[in-house]
Amino acid sequence: MPTGSWHALVMNTTVAPFSDIRVRTAMKRVVDRRKMIDLVLRGHGMVAHDHPVWSQDPFYLKLDRPQDFKHVRALLTEAGYPEGLDVELTVADVNAYMIPMAVAYKDMAAKAGIRVTIKLAKAGAYWSEHWMKTPFFGTRWTERPADLILNEGFRSGAKWNEAFWMEKRSN
To answer: How far is CA 170 from CA 74, 75, 166, 167, in A?
Structure first.
């Protein structure tokens, strides 16, 4: 039965190289999502499609984000990283999934030229000293209705807007 828990790796969209949508898209497209679930959750999970709205919510949106190394390499080249990209991913042993997810991501990303260094933070200080303070980090959310989770975690200026999304408006 789906629980609505959501495990993710977050990129701060205001910090290079993650401020470039081509880099963010490339970082997402290296993942074989089904394999990630099999490796990290032992098959007990559903693909979240890059958003935290759980599958039983009426506003759930199913997207297709297949692993595509050719597309990843093209995006990285367009973004100025033809030789690949080096990034640091900060995680901690705050739950059973964050570190295994980081290791699985590192292995998948390496096949596309994204070299991930995993920085292991102390669990007791993770949420106060690393979460939302480093450019690329792990997170976990529990089930919330769509309007609540999207307002808490994705609205410009929201306290827990982990990726620092900001909608640009012109007047």
So the answer is: 31, 27, 13, 10
Q: What element of type H or E holds 7?
A: strand 6-11
Tokens of 114: 């994204």
β 136-141/114-121 pair status:
unpaired
Q: How many angstroms separate the CA atoms of 113 and 148, rounded?
A: 37
CA angle 5, 154, 99 (to 5 degrees): 45
d(CA 22, CA 85): 12
Distance CA 44, CA 138 (A): 19
User: Could you give the CA distance from residue 164 to residue 38 in angstroms, rounded to a whole number?
Assistant: 30
For 121, phi then psi, to 5°, come to: -90, 160
Note the pTM of the prediction, 2 decimals: 0.88
Q: Are 162 and 10 in contact (CB under 8 A)?
A: yes
Peptide bond into 2 cis (omega under 30): no
Q: What is the CATH number of the domain that holds 21?
A: 3.10.105.10
Residue 124 lies in a domain: yes
Domain membership of residue 170 (yes or no) is no
Encode pLDDT of 72-122 as tens digits: 999 999 999 999 999 999 999 999 999 999 999 999 999 999 999 999 999
Query: How many angstroms separate the CA atoms of 32 and 20, rounded?
Result: 22
